[in-house]
């Protein structure tokens, strides 16, 4: 159920069609269309954001992340509907994904700075999307969790607070 909800949520905000959602969720197209329609009824601000991003991209030729990085969209006014549709989906997606990348990069720099300042021997090893993976000394588990949580949740101050979930395990697979 969580996987289906995540698929629907991310698919909708990235402009998935009823056909595409139906295929991904293995449901009838009519059910997928109703799901999308209901989503926008329940979350009208999401639809407003999507429409505003497309209009902004058409006006300026680019969209921005929360840290001001730009994604130029030369095809946003294309006469070809398929090409224009791809650019429109990027106008919606790029600020979201790019801002997430901005946030995690700020958090990574701050975490490393804290590790250095506090002489933490554990090492940040890997970033995958919104996850960080650490080679963790068991004796440092509590302090590393505290530092990571603080720095990730406060990397960028937003109206909606960022929340961090974390697990410690013998390997990455077991942590999930």
What is the class of the domain at 102-175 in the CATH system? Alpha Beta
What structural class do the secondary elements suggest? mainly alpha
Helix content: 55-70%
CATH topology of the domain at 102-175: Alpha-Beta Plaits
Shape: globular
Question: From the coordinates shown, what is the CATH architecture of the domain at 102-175?
Answer: 2-Layer Sandwich
Low-confidence stretches: none
SSE sequence, one letter per element: HHHHEEHEEHH
Mean pLDDT: 93
Strand content: 5-15%
Distance between the termini: 17 Å
How do the strands line up in the largest sheet?
1-2
Number of strands: 4
What does this structure look like?
It is built from 7 helices and 4 strands, in the order H-H-H-H-E-E-H-E-E-H-H. The protein is mainly alpha-helical and 176 residues long. Among the domains are: 1-42; 102-175, Alpha-Beta Plaits. The chain has a two-stranded antiparallel ribbon with strand order 1-2. It has a two-stranded antiparallel sheet with strand order 3-4. Strand 1 (62-64) and strand 2 (70-72) form a beta hairpin. Helix 2 (18-25) packs across helix 3 (29-42). The longest helix is centred in the middle third of the chain and has 37 residues, at 81-117. It is globular, with a radius of gyration of 20 Å. It starts with a helix and ends with a helix. The model has no long low-confidence stretch (mean pLDDT 93).
């Amino acid at each position: 159920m969580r996987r289906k909800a995540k698929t629907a949520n991310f698919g909708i905000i990235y402009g998935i069609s009823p056909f595409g959602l139906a295929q991904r969720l293995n449901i009838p197209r009519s059910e997928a269309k109703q799901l999308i329609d209901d989503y926008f009824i329940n979350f009208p601000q999401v639809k407003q954001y999507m429409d505003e991003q497309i209009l902004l991209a058409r006006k300026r030729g680019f969209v921005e992340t929360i840290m001001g990085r730009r994604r130029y969209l030369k095809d946003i006014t294309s006469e070809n509907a398929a090409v224009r549709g791809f650019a429109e989906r990027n106008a919606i997606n790029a600020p979201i994904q790019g801002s997430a990348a901005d946030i995690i990069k700020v958090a990574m720099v701050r975490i490393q700075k804290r590790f250095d300042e506090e002489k933490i021997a554990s090492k940040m090893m890997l970033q995958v999307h919104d996850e960080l993976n650490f080679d963790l000394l068991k004796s440092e588990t509590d302090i590393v969790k505290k530092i990571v949580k603080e720095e990730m949740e406060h990397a960028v101050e937003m109206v909606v607070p960022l929340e961090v979930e974390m697990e410690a395990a013998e390997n990455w697979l077991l942590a999930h």
